[in-house]
Write a structure and sequence with these properties.
Elements: E1 6-14, E2 17-24, E3 28-33, E4 36-40, H1 42-61, E5 86-95, E6 100-104, E7 112-116, H2 121-126, H3 131-135, H4 146-160, E8 169-172, E9 177-179, H5 181-191, E10 196-204, H6 210-230, H7 249-258, E11 263-266, E12 270-272, E13 275-278, E14 280-284, H8 289-296, E15 310-311, E16 319-322, E17 327-331, E18 335-337, E19 343-346, H9 349-358, H10 366-380, H11 386-395, H12 401-411, H13 415-423, H14 427-436
Parallel strand pairs: 8-10, 14-17, 15-19
Antiparallel strand pairs: 1-2, 2-3, 3-4, 5-10, 6-7, 8-9, 11-14, 12-13, 16-17, 18-19
Helix pairs in contact: 4-5, 10-11, 10-12, 12-13, 13-14
Amino acid sequence: MSNPSVYLLGETKINNSIVRIEDNLGEAIHVHIGALRLSMTVAEFMLMSEQFQLAAEELLKLEGLSLGMFDVNSFDWDWIHRYEEIEKIEFCNIKIGDLLTVTESKKFPDIQEIVKVSRGRQYEALCGNYEFLRHYKEKNKYKVTNEERLDSILKTIKNKGYPYDNKYILVNQYNQIYDGDHRAACLLLLRGEDAVIPVIKMWMKNDKTIEEQEASLKKRIEDRILLEKNKKNPIRMWPEELNVLNYDFETFSHILLDKGYKYYHIDYPISGGETIVADKLVVIEEGRIIDFCKELGVSYYGKSVYRYYTFLYSMQRVVYIELNDIKIVVADCICIKSKFQNSLMPLDKVVQKYAWETSAENRCDSRVKQLFIICDAMLNSEGFSEKAIKVLEDNNLYTDGVFEKLLETVFFKYTNNLVEALKKGDYEKAYKEYMTYIDY
């Protein structure tokens, strides 16, 4: 089974192995260490996290530090495995204008340049230029935007001062910020670059000098410029314009059948957050999307909200088409949007098999439609719309054992709670409790 609600709790690299911690909602916590995967309950993970924090606290104590000195919720843990490289730690007073941060290179946004805080993305945002802050992938709390996080820190410093809650900005021997970029930007705005603030300064044995880092950065940019210069423009195999067919859905259906395609459709709108992406999902046979595009004269890479999505578990791209009467999305499986990332993924094989076996007159059966509506509301929308509630209450399949088994392929151990809330008509609880449920 594949879980559509996988939330990345953290990711780093230790000894050349990528470490990822994922919360698979309703299912399990997965810890990936290279090729190894550990699966544990939320309770087991919380216990392990507490033990790691205790271990980190003991290591920091050796250097006269404590976790209480840092904002643990936004702490950059990547340096902590280098604790043996720490040579000296001191409390120092530093001019805000002497602090260094990083920002995106103007030529190549994926390359970070060393700059003064006054040129960092956080300070630029505080001055009204939000471009780099909005596009930067920040590790925030769920549904907290980069702007909201920065604004919250600014308000906290205005109300509590600095250091608030005994939390200090952490820098290395070259005044590069290890922890506290947001606080530094806010302090620069409020106090100016000549203001002196207390920080924790940590001398690290193997940290390169600013000159060495800038030389390495210059070489990296030069290599990228040369690579871009020698790169050949890819040949466009498919146009990227909007797919439009000048006939209605009934004609489209006849054309599919005439060309020998087996298909069924789900007669329910596909959401894109608060907007409607399409009126129906049309599912054709697995692996036949490219053939379909060639035969009907539409583009595999046509314009749509899914243009830059990733498509998981070997499913082909979906194709968005505007007909004379409705808008449709054509896919080679019943698919849903991942709750936490811009990707589409197929529902479980059990659902795919059941949908084909029970479809009649090119329509899915009521169980599949109801499952799709619940998935759309829980994963792709901001909850259950009036239209969704009406369809669900008209069908009322909550005591149906087969339907509950289908639900379990998506919502795992949360299924019982979901069904109970839906039976009682408590749609808001069904939606909101999903994010806070931890009994798995």
